[in-house]
Design goal:
Length: 412
């Protein structure tokens, strides 16, 4: 068969044809409706936000006069240091569990507590309001700033140290109040729909729990004070959930994917950089978008956030096991599929459930410790042989260990 060679100029005519067909196919792939659309429709039907603007409204506004978050930030700004020996690093100091306290340290403690008595009272009053909304603007999407988290953590540290100082001085009532306020402060972050806010809540609860242990080593709280602490630890454990945080991550990331390719680059990767229209990265993101890779990436991320939100409602042990399965599935996807954004964003989120499980176990253990101390006081200083002796009594039931589903263990 004789081979026919087309003139070079005729071969060039096919280039725009191939380009047009290729671009058309890629555009068609990117616009195909799929699971992502159905998933968003289901969320909307449940009243769950799917945009940053909807999320900002979902994080309900609270009038300033009764907004625990706003009021506690204002009150905590009143903490003052005291220039006395022993208080140079008051927010970091931790007393010994067993050694005695020097007279000079007691004087320094009393001076610090007296100086900050009004601030502690204002924080306590602020935390009596049940609703909270911190001053953030979620309509900024993934660029939302959370400047309140650092002051909240610092306030938790101050409350913990004040509880320990009060215990050293023998002021059981003030020590108890500071511990209760520390746990209440942590709970003000529960409505906030971001993972980082949930993790800071965990840190604040950890501070209160560690301080409670040291307080109980230093003074003997009465039955009423122990009951208050026990109920507070129980409440914190019962309300510990990251479902709102996962809704927030879903909305913020959805809006990031909705940005034009050039704005994605400057807003998320190189904020404040040069004109994206002149950057090759913008072209790469444009190809990433129309090729269908962007849709796959987004679908994987949205599916993970939404399933995590659903699992958050399960009992702790079932949630932990189901989350391990979900994380294993995602890990396999990330290893076998090209999902660049999901591979960059999701690994840090995978630890959220394990941190929640750890914190739940700590809070339940603190709850049981308060019950054991009540039993000990009622039985002449003797410890129970097992937690069964506390039921019924200080405990209605023995909390479960979220890792294995069995009752918490007790060793003398």
């Amino acid at each position: 068969m004789r081979r026919v060679n087309l003139p070079s100029w005729k071969r060039l005519l096919w280039i725009p044809v191939f380009l047009g067909v290729g671009i058309g196919v890629l555009t068609w792939m990117a616009r195909q409706p799929g699971d992502m659309d159905r998933q968003l429709a289901r969320l909307k039907a449940q009243g769950i936000p799917t945009t940053s603007a909807e999320l900002d409204v979902w994080y309900a506004a609270v009038p300033d006069a009764v907004n625990a978050g706003k009021l506690v930030l204002e009150a905590a700004s009143g903490f003052r240091t005291v220039a006395l020996p022993g208080l140079e690093a008051d927010s970091q100091r931790r007393p010994s569990r067993t050694n005695g306290v020097t007279e000079s340290l007691l004087l320094a403690n009393r001076a610090y507590l007296a100086t900050n008595a009004e601030t502690l009272h204002a924080i306590h009053a602020a935390l009596q309001h049940p609703q909270s909304r911190y001053p953030i603007l979620l309509t900024n999407g993934v660029l939302t700033l959370l400047p309140h988290l650092s002051p909240v953590k610092q306030a938790a540290q101050r409350l913990g140290v004040c509880a320990e100082m009060a215990a050293e001085c023998g002021d059981r009532e003030l020590a108890t109040q500071c511990l209760l306020d520390g746990l209440a402060l942590a709970r003000t972050l529960q409505p906030e729909p971001t993972v980082i806010s949930f993790l800071v809540r965990n840190v604040c609860e950890g501070i209160a729990t560690a301080s409670a242990e040291r307080v109980l080593h230093r003074v003997e709280l009465n039955s009423n004070q122990l009951s208050q602490l026990q109920r507070a630890f129980n409440r914190s454990a019962a309300e510990l959930s990251y479902d709102r945080a996962m809704v927030g991550e879903l909305c913020l990331n959805l809006d990031a994917f909705r940005m034009p390719a050039g704005r994605q680059w400057t807003g998320l990767v190189a904020p404040g950089g040069p004109n994206p229209a002149l950057q090759p990265e913008a072209v790469v993101l444009w190809v990433y978008s129309i090729s269908g890779l962007k849709g796959r990436d987004l679908a994987v991320m949205a599916n993970y956030y939404n399933r995590s939100r659903e699992l958050a409602a399960l009992p702790p042990t079932a949630r932990h096991r189901a989350s391990e399965t979900l994380n294993a599935e995602l890990d396999a996807q990330l290893r076998t599929q090209f999902l660049p954004i999901a591979h960059m964003m999701l690994p840090g989120i995978l630890k959220t459930e394990s941190k929640a499980t750890h914190q739940y176990a700590v809070l339940r253990s603190a709850e049981v410790a308060c019950a054991v101390e009540q039993w000990r006081q009622a039985h002449g200083g003797a410890l129970p042989e097992s937690l069964n002796a506390l039921v019924p009594g200080p405990l209605a039931s023995i909390p479960e260990d979220p890792l294995d589903g069995r009752p918490l263990k007790f060793v003398k």
